[in-house]
Amino acid sequence: MIKKKYIQNKTESDPKDPSLLASELGLKFNKPSYLEIAFIHSSFRNENPEYKEDNERLEFLGDSVLGLVVAKYLYRTNPSASEGELSRKKATLVSTAMLNGLSEKLGLTSYVLLGKGEGQGGAQKKLGANLFESLVGAIYLDQGMEAAEKFILEHLIEYIKNSDKVKEATDYKSILQEICQKKFRLLPSYRLIKETGPDHEKTFYVSVSIRDKHSAEGKGKNKKFAEQDAAKQLLKALKIKV
Predict the structure, then answer these.
(1) Catalytic residue from among 54, 59, 63, 229
(2) Which residues contact 222 (CB under 8 A, 6 or more apart)?
(3) C-alpha separations of 83 from 21, 74, 100 in Å
(4) Once rounded to an integer, what is the mean pLDDT over residues 227-242?
(5) Which of 3, 116, 128, 158 is the most exposed place for a label (fewest CB within 10 A)?
(6) Is 142 a residue of the active site?
(7) What dihedral do alpha carbons 148, 154, 160, 163 form, nearest 10°?
(8) Which among 119, 129, 133 has a CA at the least distance from the CA of 38?
(9) Contact between 156 and 93 (Cβ < 8 Å)
(10) What residues contact residue 183 under an 8 Å CB cut-off, 6+ apart?
(11) Structure pTM?
């Protein structure tokens, strides 16, 4: 059992005990330490060396479990969907925006131990999503795949069904990445080619390539949009329907 230490954060005067969350969600851990580690951020462990573990490994594990469960769910519920359609749906369901929304609904960030300098900043944009993944990893280690699958389907899938904010905006980069990992066992490489136009109305041009054998170019009002367009063009060149 980990000796808990709570610090001030932005949502409560002190983070809540994760065991309260487990009770609210109907979870009973055989090893409560898994649950506790799921809510120890690396920034907190760095400032408190007596803590030997943080949630990054659980997050890594939970990400894989989540991906498998969602892929299985989509395969079963979309019998006529193509590989591209399934990849697109999966990318939406496991996106940072989706998991952040679910994490907010469950109130996960009110249980996390954060370092003093982590209350704000860009890294915290993924905090909720990361916590959901680490919690999934903790459930999997403690109770196995069946329990983890039940938790994911009960909360993520139901959240999606009942959310008015869910929009299946196609994430071409995620689709291309998943296909590249499966078919080529590597990640696509993006490169900024040039920027044109005045500062207030720039156009960015980006190239994407796979092993220098397949490539395409895209453009957009910022680098992010240009990368999405490049990924879209490469998917078209590879004759992959999305």
Answers:
(1) 63
(2) 202, 204
(3) 37, 11, 26
(4) 88
(5) 3
(6) no
(7) -140
(8) 133
(9) yes
(10) none
(11) 0.67
User: CA-CA distance, 37 to 163, in Å (whole number)?
Assistant: 30
36 is catalytic: no
Catalytically annotated residue among 36, 59, 118, 133: 133
Q: Comparing 211 with 171, which gets the higher pLDDT?
A: 211
User: What are 127-178's pLDDT values in tens digits?
Assistant: 999 999 999 999 999 999 999 999 999 998 877 776 555 545 567 888 888 8
- Spell out where 164-213 has E strands: 189-196, 203-210
Tell me what percent of the residues of the chain surpass a pLDDT of 90.
54
Domains and CATH numbers, the chain: 18-162 (1.10.1520.10), 175-237 (3.30.160.20)
Q: Is-contact 237 214, C-beta < 8 A?
A: yes
